[in-house]
Write a structure and sequence with these properties.
Structural class: mainly alpha
Number of domains: 2
Distance between the termini: 44 Å
Shape: flat
Largest sheet: 2 strands, antiparallel
Radius of gyration: 27 Å
Number of strands: 2
Number of helices: 7
Strand content: under 5%
Strand order of the largest sheet: 1-2
Oligomer: single chain
């Protein structure tokens, strides 16, 4: 994989050099430099506009309680587009500008989703009183008796005895030498 990236880097570098020299021969050196700078400036403005649009759509998805998968992928593609546009050259700027357009970005996004779909694992959440991130979560008696309403337990309101956990209560997997959060 590293070899492929190295070859791709060399091909892009040689291609960019060729295109810059071809434009310089046709337009003149200073005009070519001006065109490269203009392309970068226009691209930066477009990336900012598209980035704010993607951020707004991601916030709307979160407000609806949905995971903003497409918006997150669009955000990554916009970062790649920004890097390509700000890299001096015509080929990289052209690819970056293509990634700025929503229809082109949608095609690339779907290809990426299809390519990585098998590698993504769904993860659930743990809800309930107890240890979270290495710290004990305080739970009041009201929280325990109404646990079913909050999504904890079976909601029967059965009594649960609260107590302190000592080092003798620690299980075999407990590493007391770990100075993580809450263990100072």
């Amino acid at each position: 994989m590293l070899g492929i990236l190295f070859v791709l880097f060399l091909v892009v570098l040689v291609g960019e050099g060729y295109l810059i020299l071809a434009f310089a021969a046709a337009l003149g050196g200073w005009n070519t430099v001006g065109l490269i700078v203009l392309t970068s400036m226009v691209g930066a403005v477009l990336v900012r506009r598209e980035g704010l649009s993607v951020l707004r759509r991601a916030q709307e998805s979160l407000d609806r309680g949905q995971i903003p998968t497409n918006e997150l992928i669009n955000g990554v593609l916009l970062l790649v587009a920004a890097a390509l546009i700000l890299t001096p050259g015509f080929f990289t700027a052209g690819v970056g500008l293509l990634l700025l357009f929503p229809p082109t970005r949608a095609v690339v996004r779907e290809v990426l989703k299809h390519r990585f779909a098998g590698r993504v694992k769904a993860a659930g959440t743990f809800r309930g009183p107890g240890v979270r991130f290495g710290q004990w979560t305080d739970v009041s008696a009201t929280d325990i008796t109404n646990a079913g309403e909050a999504g904890y337990g079976d909601g029967s309101g059965s009594a649960i005895e609260l107590g302190a956990v000592s080092e003798e209560d620690a299980g075999p997997d407990d590493d007391s030498s770990d100075a993580g959060p809450g263990r100072r």
